[in-house]
Write a structure and sequence with these properties.
Layout (H helix, E strand, L loop, with lengths): L12 H18 L4 H26 L14
Helix pairs in contact: 1-2
């Protein structure tokens, strides 16, 4: 199935900047005109979401533990 109307590559910016939400928005916006590009947008959003979680988990191990906890008794 060939796309009826090829969509712009600018649609890839939506999942890059908004992550999974941007991928979903791009998918529903262009799915009827260019389904392969719509699938790539949602996959890009999922991949960037997973990379963000992995980076957060990785850098959480390097976070310093404060000695004082700003006066909070634990």
């Amino acid at each position: 199935m060939y796309p009826e109307k090829p969509r712009s590559n600018w649609w890839y910016l939506l999942p890059i900047f908004l992550g999974i939400i941007g991928g979903i928005i791009a998918y529903f916006a262009i799915r009827k005109d260019d389904r392969p590009k719509a699938k790539k947008c949602i996959y890009l959003g999922l991949i960037l979401f997973a990379v963000g979680i992995l980076v957060d988990v990785f850098f959480a191990g390097f976070a310093p533990i404060p000695d004082n906890w700003y006066g909070v008794n634990i």
